[in-house]
Amino acid sequence: MSAKTNKTSGEPVEALRLDRQLCFALYGAANRVTRLYRPMLDALGLTYPQYLAMLVLWEASPRTVGALGEALDLESSTLTPLLKRLETQGLVARTRDPEDERRVVVTLTEAGAALRDKAKAVPEQLFCKLNLQLDELGDLRERLKALAV
Amino acid sequence: MSAKTNKTSGEPVEALRLDRQLCFALYGAANRVTRLYRPMLDALGLTYPQYLAMLVLWEASPRTVGALGEALDLESSTLTPLLKRLETQGLVARTRDPEDERRVVVTLTEAGAALRDKAKAVPEQLFCKLNLQLDELGDLRERLKALAV
DNA sequence: TGCGATTATATCGCGCACGATTAAATCGTT
DNA sequence: AACGATTTAATCGTGCGCGATATAATCGCA
Fold first, then answer.
1. How many whole angstroms separate alpha carbon B149 and alpha carbon A89?
2. In whole angstroms, what is the distance from residue B93 CA to residue B107 CA?
3. Alpha carbons B139 and B133: distance in angstroms, whole number
């Protein structure tokens, strides 16, 4: 038995150990990285998911809510309030597509487009906070992109 | 320029591309894995963070709120309401430590301890849903544990 | 031309996750 | 003993993330 007493178990259930769980490593890493971003994103007035949405829009604007949801793998129930907050901040505009009134088109405002310059430094700043080589980062990124697709 | 028109940018800012961001790969993978767990955890009546808390308690109960927070890397502002919900479900008991009334001791109830048996199958069930070799999983887990510590 | 089915977004309720703050118990130093 | 500093949880407000549901526009087909 382990050094620490375990008052709940008779025999250990190996597979249930927290330190063997990929899910916990993933959960913890995601939380830690969000916390690392926070001070940098505070300076931009963005939350972490808002920053991700802006990344998508900086690549191509306008986009429909649906297209954003596909890119970010998020539901409209998550995106709609988030986009309304970006709209309130004056970073995006939300308008119905006249071609199909079901669609809502999200467009960067000038302020939203301009924020891109301030955000340019973020990726490198963050990279410095990770204890990681550049090639390790690329490898890890690709593995994660392939995970649970 | 890329095949799709990009009305926002003059020259591309390579580092800002979503598909180059480790943060997004991590964020997406964490969300996807949570969604994979959901049906299995629904059967146990647990959310994903509740499942993680139970994993910690199945390893050793009782534990203080602080010790749980350290193990899970979560603040009391997250844990306290979560533990109250587990208490409401009858899975844990929360009592003040008589030795030091500041501490709250979280103890598995019989039902909480018993749930462990039902949870035993979860890790393997989840593993089957990931497109992953066992050694890849271990490697990925260790890399994530080292990330942003 | 209708009218049921589908599609696109929005709304609602719940449970995190965290920073800021509060409250209470304990500790340390005099 | 006293009292300021520290430690431990709890509380509060904001913003996700999602399932279930609602609403409205469009489509398809008789």
1. 33
2. 5
3. 10
Whether the predicted model's global pTM rises above the 0.85 cut: yes
Question: What are A4's two structure tokens?
Answer: 């620490």
pLDDT of residue A8: 45
Strand-pair partners of B9: none
Task: Report pLDDT digits (tens) over A40-82.
Answer: 999 999 999 999 999 999 999 999 999 999 999 999 999 999 9
- B60 to chain A, any CB pair closer than 8 A? The answer is yes
CA distance B2 to chain A (A): 10
CB-contacted nucleotides of strand C (7 Å): 7-13, 15-20, 24-27
Instruction: Using an 8 Å CB-CB cutoff, list chain B residues near A56.
Output: 18
Tell me how far CA of residue B46 lies from CA of B9, B59, B105, B135, in angstroms.
Answer: 45, 17, 21, 28
For residue A138, the tally of other CB atoms under 10 A from its CB is 13
- Which two tokens mark B95? 């009592």
Which residue in B32, B28, B52, B25 sits closest to B122, CA to CA? B52
B71 touches strand D (CB under 7 A): no
A105, A61 contact by CB (below 8 A): no
* Average pLDDT of chain A to the nearest whole number: 92
Beta strand pairing call for A100-108 and B63-64: unpaired
What's the Å distance between residue A65 CA and nucleotide C28 C1'? Answer: 59
